[in-house]
Design a protein that fits this description.
Structural class: alpha/beta
Radius of gyration: 17 Å
Number of helices: 12
Distance between the termini: 25 Å
Number of domains: 1
Oligomer: single chain
Strand order of the largest sheet: 1-10-7-6-5-4-3-2
CATH architecture: Alpha-Beta Barrel
CATH class: Alpha Beta
Strand content: 5-15%
Largest sheet: 8 strands, parallel
Helix content: 40-55%
CATH topology: TIM Barrel
């Protein structure tokens, strides 16, 4: 299925992605502060349940539970020696759930450390971290590499370069923007898209950030800079603290679905969800975009 997703995107087909994994696992009992990737081995049935729920909602993509599966994040959790195990298990669970009905994306997130000169992580160290994870995910059998929630262009480029150099897979790269159209590091959408494309990304886009409106603004800037399929994976708004310290997300499935057409009109060809989204959000988006094709 490796080439199929690129052909589908190039043809203008709108692909429905899945939604949040971490917040869905938290809803199933994952304690605060515990890396979701640990549950690939400790509670595989719950990770599988999340995948199945999104597939039932209409997703054509299963994203591996490996966002924090790089050596930097696993070291912080005291689990660096389990990197291969946890990433492979994440792919195994996603592949079994997809069962040939959906593409499996190998999820890669930031290291959690700032690169030089803002922090102590060098380019070479970042590249080594990403080379290790992309290699494990590719060998385990993903259909594409999904690099997401990036704020620093140099870190994103490290991941893209390693994915292109050490796999033969399609590479998707998305960034997290605020309502003012900047990442946490001040990166603009057009610059992010152009530089990621130059590094070899096959699709670029926006995920996480400050809700659907921020996604639309980011996509608009990206579409002016590159001629690539765009990705839209909005949070369910901005989290609020509810009763007994519970987290409440303020964008309903219906509200996210109402934004979905705007995502497509702005160039999105892969539309899913990020933090706080649920299978109900994805079902609403799938219904809103049934039969949709990206404008040419």
């Amino acid at each position: 299925m490796m080439d199929d997703i690129l052909r589908a995107l190039a043809a203008g087909e709108v692909i429905i992605g899945d939604g949040a994994i971490g917040t869905q696992l938290q809803a199933r009992g994952l304690p605060a502060g515990v890396l979701p990737e640990l549950w690939n081995a400790e509670h595989p049935e719950l990770v599988t349940a999340v995948h199945h729920a999104y597939l039932h909602a209409g997703a054509r993509i299963v994203t591996t539970n490996t966002f924090g599966g790089n050596r930097a994040r696993l070291t912080s959790a005291g689990a660096a020696d389990r990197l291969t195990e946890l990433n492979r298990k994440g792919v195994e669970l996603a592949r079994a759930a997809a069962d040939g009905r959906a593409w499996v994306l190998g999820d890669i997130g930031p290291t959690g450390h700032l690169l030089e000169p803002y922090g102590v992580l060098s380019i070479a160290e970042a590249e080594a971290i990403y080379r290790e994870q992309v290699t494990v995910l590719a060998e385990a059998g993903v259909d594409a590499i999904a690099i997401e929630t990036m704020n620093d262009i140099e870190e994103a480029l490290c991941a893209v370069r390693m994915a292109r150099a050490h796999t033969n897979l399609p590479v998707l790269c998305s960034f997290a923007f605020n309502a003012k159209g900047r990442t946490m590091m001040g990166l603009r959408p057009a610059d992010a898209a152009q530089r990621a494309a130059e590094a070899g990304a096959h699709a670029v886009g926006a995920n996480c950030g400050e809700g659907p409106a921020a996604i639309v603004a980011a996509l608009t800037g990206m579409r002016e800079a590159v001629d690539l399929p765009l990705i839209a994976q909005a949070n369910a708004g901005v989290p609020q603290v509810g009763a007994e310290e519970s987290t409440i997300w303020d964008v309903t499935p219906e509200q996210l679905a109402a934004h979905a057409r705007a995502f497509v009109d702005a160039g999105a060809r892969l539309v899913g969800g990020c933090c706080g989204t649920t299978p109900a959000h994805i079902a609403a988006v799938a219904a809103a975009l049934a039969g949709a094709a990206a404008p040419h």
